[in-house]
Amino acid sequence: MYVLEAYSLNPVSGEKKGYNRTEVDIIVGYNHKDDCFAEVPLDDFNGKLSGVVHAKEGIRSKYFNSWVALSEI
């Protein structure tokens, strides 16, 4: 299980601000330790600042080590 975070962080105030569709379409995360990635359409976050991706079966598993989200946007 991996967690993708979909926000920008203000370095001064520490405030987290979620992205919107005018800024990004897809959130991509790469795990150096496991040499794997996940990419999830921003709309799939439903306004939340983070989302879980399962490596096998489960939540958003179709986005694990796959570029399928590119065909969905």
UniProtKB/TrEMBL annotation:
It comes from the Bacteria. Residues 7-58 form the PD(D/E)XK endonuclease domain. InterPro entries: PD(D/E)XK_Endonuc (IPR021671), tRNA_endonuc-like_dom_sf (IPR011856). This is PD(D/E)XK endonuclease domain-containing protein. It comes from Gordoniibacillus kamchatkensis.
